[in-house]
Design brief:
By secondary structure, the protein is mostly helical. It has 13 helices and 2 strands, in the order ααααααααααββααα. Strands 1-2 form a two-stranded antiparallel ribbon. Helix 4 packs antiparallel against helix 7, helix 6 runs antiparallel to helix 7 and helix 6 runs parallel beside helix 8. The radius of gyration is 22 Å and the shape is globular. Bound molecules: benzoyl coenzyme A (BYC). The site of benzoyl coenzyme A has 28 residues, from helix 2, helix 6 and helix 9. It comes from Promicromonospora soli. This is Phenylacetate-CoA oxygenase subunit PaaA. Pfam families: PaaA_PaaC. One of its GO terms (cellular component) is cytosol.
Length: 324
């Protein structure tokens, strides 16, 4: 809402809102010290904290495969990728803290089930090929969604996304390479790759969120230039990107309606099962309970690390005081 259309704004609030609107209109960045409407702040806290939660919950399906990766090289690569995801969580939690919410509050919202995280991590990853599909399709969808977020109007979010996107593109390539190795392997390996792609394709398309007509937040987030493209536009971009990659791999994307549309200059694709998406959001996906239980246990088991870090920081601060 602009200053002119805000019925309740006092004169000073109206001028702050006008200054904010002008920054957005000029594609300038909003920084933590700038005034911002409360609804803008809340939207950012919601999206950025959900994004941070997705990164750390997203460590689980792959973390679970580190000990079972088929070679030392695959283990080392997977371990590095999972560590990157922890790092992404940290950048995003830090960026969200600039909006006046603490990390403890955000984690509490995750652990009590109040905050969402990406639907995709409520699917199980039972085969090694799933490490390929997660990298290729899940990280691929993440990149398609996140590259425009590098230009998000909130400075700390956009800057965090630049580094995250660089790492995600490495993640996507390593997933593609796992699938390529399997597709160049035995018939059993090819079947394993295809079976995995069959399971991850539709959930990856759902990562972009509900169709535009059912997306309550998109319009305002796009007006504030947090989101630069709609959910459906990004989903279409992703489908257009992966079809030639699937052809190169030799896997079939499990959608009988998938075909090139000459008039639109895009691939048409079939309707997704949105009932499944909403069921996963409500908590009845394959792995919702498992993911949250593991996250809570990891938090409890990490209590001694947080205590030690606090004690160290206090000691460092008191010796600095003594020295000055
Ligand atoms: N899963 O109005 P809408 C990663 C919710 S991490 C769950 O369109 P918005 C990776 C949505 O929150 C990937 N919930 O919302 C990590 C909203 O509910 P609330 C994470 C979803 O925010 C490790 C409601 O549905 N990426 O890739 O305008 C390893 C209505 O939706 C989902 C990000 O978080 C979903 N898929 O648009 C490997 C990117 N979709 O909050 C990989 C940043 C929608 O009103 N986030 N909902 O209760 C975004 O770009 C946007 O938040 C979304 C949704 C496009 C996801």
């Amino acid at each position: 809402m602009s200053a002119a259309t805000s019925p309740t704004a006092s004169p000073s609030e109206a001028s702050k809102l006008a200054a904010f609107d002008a920054l957005i209109a000029e594609n300038q960045r909003i920084e933590p010290s700038d005034w911002m409407p409360e609804a803008y702040r809340k939207t950012l806290v919601r999206q950025m904290s959900q994004h941070a939660h997705s990164e750390i919950i997203g460590m689980q399906p792959e973390g679970n495969w580190i000990t079972r990766a088929p070679s030392l090289k695959r283990k080392a690569i997977l371990m590095a990728k999972v560590q990157d995801e922890a790092g992404h969580g940290l950048y995003l939690y830090s960026a969200t803290e600039t909006l006046g919410i603490t990390r403890d509050e955000m984690l509490d919202q995750l652990h009590t089930g109040k905050a969402k995280y990406s639907s995709i991590f409520n699917y199980l990853a039972p085969s090694w090929a799933d490490m390929g599909s997660i990298g290729w399709l899940v990280d691929g969808a993440a990149i398609a969604n996140q590259v425009p977020l590098c230009r998000a109007s909130y400075g700390p979010y956009g800057r965090a996304m630049v580094r995250i996107c660089k790492e995600e593109s490495f993640h996507q390539r390593q997933g593609f390479e796992i699938l390529l190795a399997l597709m160049n392997g035995t018939e059993a390996q090819q079947r394993m790759a295809q079976e995995s792609v069959d399971r991850w394709y539709a959930p990856a398309l759902m990562m972009f969120g509900p169709p535009d007509a059912e997306s309550p937040n998109s319009q305002q987030s796009m007006a504030w230039k947090i989101k630069r493209f709609s959910n459906d536009d990004l989903r279409q971009r992703f489908v257009d990107m992966i079809v030639p990659q699937a052809e190169f791999l030799g896997v079939t994307l499990p959608d009988p309606d998938l075909r090139w549309n000459e008039d639109r200059g895009h691939y048409d694709f079939g309707e997704l099962d949105w009932d499944e998406f909403y069921a996963v959001l409500r908590g009845s996906g394959q792995a919702n309970a498992l993911r949250l239980a593991k996250r809570r246990a990891a938090h409890d088991e990490g209590a001694w690390v947080r205590e030690a870090a606090r004690a160290y920081a206090e000691r460092a601060a008191s010796s600095e005081r003594l020295a000055s």
